[in-house]
Write a structure and sequence with these properties.
Elements (H helix, E strand, L loop, with lengths): L3 H7 L1 H33 L3 H14 L4 H12 L3 H25 L3 H9 L4 H31 L12 H9 L6 H30 L6
Helix pairs in contact: 2-5, 2-7, 2-9, 3-5, 4-5, 5-7, 6-7, 7-9, 8-9
Amino acid sequence: MSDLPSYVASRWDDILISFGEHLELVLIPIIAATLLSIIVALAVERHAIVREIVTTTSALALTIPSLALFVLLIPLVGLGPTGAYIGLTIYAIYPIFVTAVTGLSTVDKGVLESARGMGMDPLRRIAVVKLPLAWPVVLAGIRTTTTVICAIAVAAAYTQGGGFGEYLFSGVNRLGGANALAQIIVGIVGTVLVALLLEAVYAVVERLTVSKGIR
């Protein structure tokens, strides 16, 4: 443990690079999953059978072990972060999709009828009424999913996806060797710091995008 400060000091530049890589490993899949989930939720919210099919299919994807999914993607996209982005997006879709459907279903139909009476076309009702009112619920789902994806992203190290997983698994593989424990601690603490940073960002996003009346 006494070697930790000197190890961090000697690898500081690499740790910062890993921080940026881990941040990308989380943000890119979360953004992709959010866009896909909202679009699909809007398309299927009124079709119960289709909605259940999408929900069940995306839920089943969560049963695939992360390492197995990343390894299966290697023949398709090769080594590197691309496979990690795809795999993490798959894991992120289900919880965000469910909260998107939930958020959209809570929008007061009377408000939508009022918007229709004001002459708003369907796209404008979605953009101006439905999505803003559903957004707090969707954002809550995104925040929870981000924390989970931060942890799963560690497994991306097995496909050379970068991030703090490389420190964690390298330390575990070398346990008992020089700086092995320091590597594990850097991997764990770095992952937690990425999650905390994103949680702080979401708090700001919520304050900027959600009106006080519906927080």
